[in-house]
Amino acid sequence: MKVVCAWCQRAGRFVVLREKEPQNDEISHGICDEHVLVVMNEARRSEAHVSAPARGSVIPQPVA
Ligand SMILES: [Zn+2]
Structural domain boundaries of the chain? Predict the structure, then answer.
């Protein structure tokens, strides 16, 4: 099973973060270091806007 960055995949890139058992071509989704920073920055920015809806601590997932 390959763990790919869902954000990179959405951007048209296929970034394998790591592989895990079982060894096959199935895909699991994770997030790369680059996009962790992007998501954290977006969360911080939305907190600064009082009118923005609160998203809590849930990490947003791209729509498949
Ligand atoms: Zn990524």
Answer: 2-48
